[in-house]
Structure formats: structure tokens, C-alpha cells
Structure prediction request, 198 residues.
Amino acid sequence: MAPQLILASQSKTRKGLLARLGVEFSTQPADVDETPLKNEAPLAYIKRVAIAKAQAIAANHPGCVILAADSPVILGRRILQTPQTEDEAREMLKLQSGRRIAIPTVVVVIDATGKLHHKTVNSWVKMKRLSASDINAYITAGLWTHTAGGLKIELMENWIQTLHGSKSGIMGLPLYETEVMLTRAGISTQPFKSEKAA
Prediction:
């Protein structure tokens, strides 16, 4: 019998992406400190947090397969987390306006034996220069919540001049790499199951 799969996240976007692979899973958010360490490089930070999320859930669920990921927005050495207020989201959008934005994702899988596997997927987008009305409309629509840098890429493609890498990775869970890692951990995927049922 295949092991139980647990997604260590409360993100609706990650949950929706994982569902595309046609796997049965439960979700359990990991309560970990996501504060960057002093002088910590962005990629080291992402890897540390993603691993910590997976390990926090695995500690209470032996024999299960745990999937975790982390994908903040990076400008130079600055990490843009999820904005907590409209003003903070507005400032983040101004920072990203007209810029090339790195959105790397680290995917972590802990298999049923407790062995940890991880993969880094590097992606970036080039944002158009945003006007004040662009930003105001986006903020007013409430699209900035619950997402790194305030960016919901899937809803703002008219602002994206160039996209390089994994679109699903930019959204929070790179599906190609995730499917490969889950298959190796003994989780069978059925990515076209929902389409067939429809």
C-alpha cells in the first residue's frame, strides 16, 4: 500500500497545484520560524525554511511522505515575504516595477523511510513598469494577500514581459520536479484524472 502524502502548507495555490497531479493528500501547515538569519544568503534561507517545514511535519507522522516547498521573491539579496498590509504590498509592488525578479523554489520530500530529498528550481520574471493606477487596482482587488511579494503570477500575466523557468514553480510548486520526487518516494500520480472524469 502506498504511503500517505502530507502537504506541509496552508497555501490554497500549492494545494491546487498538487491536486493537478491526481494524488490523494492531506494538508498540515508547518509552524516554523521564517525569519532570515543575519547575513543569510537568499538561496540558503529558502532551503533552510523548506527543509524545516518538512521536518516539522515528519516528526509527528512517521511512515508518511511529506512534501514542502518555499518560494519567496528575491530582489538582489533582499527577500520579499508575504506582505501583511496594503501599504506593505504597495511598497513591494513599487520595488518590483520594471525589474527582473527572481522566484526560486526549493521542493523538499521526506519519504516513508525518513530520507530527505530536495531540489532547487530557479525561475524569474521581468515585470513591466507599473503605473500608480495599475498598483491601486491590484491592491483594491485584494490580490496581494497570502503570496510572496504580493504577486499572484497566474492573475497578472498582462504585467509579465518575460517569464523564465517553471510557471508552476513561480506559483509555489514546480510540478515537473514535484512529480519526479513523489514518484521516487512511492506516490503514484494521475495528472489527467480530473480531465478524464470531466
